[in-house]
Amino acid sequence: MTDFVQLWVYLSSTPLFGLTATLVIYLVAHSVYVRLRQAPWANPVLWSVVCIAGALTMTGVAYPTYFSGAQFIHFLLGPAVVALGWPLWQRRAALKARGTRFVVAALIGGAAAAGSAVAMAWALGLPHEVLLSLAPKSVTAPVAMGVAETIGGIPALAAVFSVVTGLVGALSAKYLFALMRIGTDTRGWMVRGFALGTAAHGIGAARALQVNADAGAWAALALGLQAVLASVLIPLLATLLRG
């Protein structure tokens, strides 16, 4: 037992701990996800977050210690997002034919996502900093943090709101699309994917890509549009309102 404790103390203080824990937990969660035929509630990202957070809490390992190893996976997020451009390139003819409509839909969807969150927070009497942190909730976390910092919000809180929004979207999208009777033909997958990428950014796009290649491609487009539009328009709107 003494040897085991000493080994644990050593491993938990090295970068290898965070990297190994993340990979092992995600692979186990993903295998369960596949066995359950990709049931939305079994989303591997959700259960990886729950398991890692629980393990860190129970073992007393500080988050910076964990992240010193997990940062190597975090670094790969950038190349992964860029790689999402390949499915779009394969569908460039459809993208060119509907380019204007995609931009308009992204503007409306982004405005609805940010506006509804801020309006509900204001109605509940939440602090001003929380309202500002909620505005970029439907944008991928790194962008949401930057936008929140620019407009006076709390970057860490914006990241939490972004991740929670993505998980909720990935978990509920299948049932909402069925309720709204959005089909699974070519046009239906386009609508599903673009809506999921607009509302649930990268986590939603990953879910869409697992279900259908077309849905994943259009979700990636929506993810990119929201990142660009939110980065420009939310700070601009915040400045105008202050003025």
Care to describe what's here?
There is one protein chain. By secondary structure, the protein is mostly helical. It has two domains: 75 residues, no CATH class; 167 residues, no CATH class. Helices cover 84% and strands 0% of the residues. Helix 2 crosses helix 3, helix 8 packs antiparallel against helix 9 and helix 11 crosses helix 12.
Concise synopsis of the structure shown:
This protein is mostly helical and 243 residues long.
Question: How are the secondary structure elements laid out?
Answer:
Blueprint: H1 2-12, H2 15-35, H3 44-59, H4 63-75, H5 77-83, H6 85-90, H7 92-97, H8 99-123, H9 128-134, H10 141-151, H11 155-179, H12 186-211, H13 213-242
Order of helices and strands: HHHHHHHHHHHHH
State Rg.
19 Å
Overall outline? globular
Percent of residues in beta strands: under 5%
Number of helices: 13
Structural class: mainly alpha
**Domain unit count:** 2
Helix % is over 70%
State the low-pLDDT regions, or none.
none
Mean pLDDT across every amino acid position: 85
Distance from first to last alpha carbon: 65 Å
Largest sheet: none
- The count of strands amounts to 0
